[in-house]
Amino acid sequence: MEQYLVTGMTCAACSNRVEKAVSAVPGVASCSVSLLTNSMGVEGTADPAAVIAAVEAAGYGAAVKGAEKQTAASAEAAEDALRDRETPKLKRRLLASIGFLVVLMYFSMGHMMWGFPLPAFFADNHVAMGLVQLLLAAIVMVINQRFFISGFKSLWHRAPNMDTLVALGSAASFVWSVYALFMMSAAVQRGDHGAVMEYMDEFYFESAAMILTLITVGKMLEARSKGRTTDALKGLLRLTPKTANVLRDGAERSVPVEQVRIGDEFVVRPGESIPVDGVVVSGSSAVDESALTGESVPVDKAEGDSVSAATVNRSGFLTCRATRVGEDTTLSQIIKMVSDAAATKAPIAKIADKVSGVFVPVVISIALVTLIVWLLLGRPFAFALARGISVLVISCPCALGLATPVAIMVGNGMGAKNGILFKTAVSLEETGKAQIIALDKTGTITEGTPQVTDILPAEGVTEEELLREAYALEQKSEHPLARAVVTLAEGRGLPCDAVTDFEALPGNGLTAQREGRTLTGGSMKYIGGRFPLPDALRARAEALAEQGKTPLLFARDGQVLGVIAVADVIKPDSPEAIAALHAMGIRVVMLTGDNARTARAIGAQAGVDDVVAGVLPDGKEGVIRRLKELGKVIMVGDGINDAPALTRADIGVAIGAGTDVAIDAADVVLMKSRLTDVAAAVRLSRATLRNIHQNLFWAFFYNVICIPVAAGVFVKLGLTLNPMLGAAAMSLSSVCVVTNALWLNLLRVHDSRRDKPGKIIEETTFRQAVEEIQNSFKEDTNMTKIVKIDGMSCGHCEARVKKALEALAGVEKAEPSHEKKNAVLTLSAAVDEAAVKAAVTDAGYDFLGME
What we know:
It is built from 31 helices and 30 strands. The chain has a seven-stranded mixed beta sheet, sandwiched between helices. Strands 6-5-7-13-8-11 form a six-stranded antiparallel beta sheet, with no helix packed on it. The radius of gyration is 37 Å and the shape is elongated.
């Protein structure tokens, strides 16, 4: 998306005209204009010069935003672009206008309404009084000449805007007053005192000046509020570090952050910000990542851990190597996402855009009709003109144009503060409409790495003894389950006993010698088939398997020592997050490649509505397609294999710790990798959409009610509005819309106490649909996979590999070929690639991949 700065826009009609003009340029695929940030996003192949020419032909100015390399210099430029320059200018205009308006009101109304004294010269000189009012009103009009320049320029281009309404209203008041002044002068010359007083009552000089002053008050308050809506984005830009302490030629040098290159090593002392994304080469520390994730608790970092730009080193001395610099850093990507989202439009904004496109011409027509009707009804021209002017100045297209973008900007800012990044305005609007959320199991509901959950020593064996023997045996294995046992033992500080004659046996077994004694480990099926297994221990192992855990059994010299259960445990916040989604009326389904028994056990722990088990990576996209037949679907995942499903879903949500591919495919990114943030994203989306509805209601309601009142429809009921009150009401309408949007800043995105269910899918319908999806996978279970293997040289090797692979759960048949250097697997259920690799490696051969 190419972004442009647009100048000269003052209301929704302006942004609508720019959008239409640019959309007509050949090569433009889509265009969205933001009145809030005075920016425009254009997608397509159009030449920037042609886009700028189209904007200028429409009567506005445009320039391409600088290349967004998020270095310190460009961050300062970007922040400067967001700086509120309008409020100081409007404040100066307002103060000057008020100064002359007070004097004008003193002369025009003070002496008549409140008996304020006047200089003797003006006592009976009504013409002089009129000339003073003309002069003071003209000064106020010159001070606020921008309304007239913009308004009549837009009218010349046949695209009238809000300034056109203000300029026409003020000019009509002034011109009629000048006419009345000339007529009064003629009456003075004739000596017609009655006519003099009659024409003096038709002076609207104070209305002409008051309209401009009150609109300027509204514009200033509006500009000030609009400036606050971009505070979150400006806060992110301020985080960008300015310098880095780089190690070059063995010496430490302080250089501007834009000069840091990938591969450079840099040091970070306690209290300093990390300049670019990198990996820790040496040292350890606690790093405050709250600026990016919203998480207040510092994260421990050691050698090999990644660090991000703009996070703060709190304790130790770190030496890091740069991995991503400039626009590629995490901070720069966040800034780009928030900025791009501000440059896009939510679908609901199109309603306001359509109305804004015809609003001003319709209002001018209503004002003319009002004038003509009152004249036909026999009312004086001054009365009819006052009604027409009131219609012009009370109508407010600004409130319509601001209703959506201000809420979107504040919502995006709130999301960024809490580590929830919406890539577009569409994703912010649509997330809250979700009826089904599909969660990938591994890494989303669960931690993603196996951990020891239970240790069950046999009778006469201590827990430490069992774990120590298992540690000695598993230390040489590369299997992920073995890593879990080793990690626990190391965490408890157990000594690592040396073993000899280590061998991985076909059928998920290990054996080794330690101090002359034989250690054996493996699955319950393997150990139970070789050694006597106590009934009580077997029952407990089977119970663990029913819970979705993998029981590993260990024996010494043929005597079973006990069971160590390993599982990919669910994250602590997963049940809480899923319960919060249920409270919002959202159905939650878990997708996993595990067998049905394991899947249902984990699903029950997490509290999901249903599970779809045995789903291979390429099958997730099909599940999402089927679920979309029931309602709007959010897919939450973190891996490369989740990308197609993330794209297929109505909204794809990527866990921040996931792969870059998943993050690129997603519409929403969760920086904290916490499932409760999914509920927070839905909550924030719903609050933003609710705020937009309130703003649109107020904008439409205001115009529907106030225009008839201003036109004099309710005169017989005593309801009328003079032009000055109309201008005040117009100013307040925009201020109310922007102020209402700022209330979003008070939203607590993790507070579920006010959650209300949306449109709920009936439980029976949902379960039937999920069951049909599950059955479709069962019907297509006999799938094949080809495993590439190196090292087989004869039929004996083939037999060894065959036995190892067929021992895996889900493998119906394995057909190895040493000539083709592969094995064809017939599967009855999904099989984890890591398990296949471990089986091949433990059998003594090289695993080259699986397809």
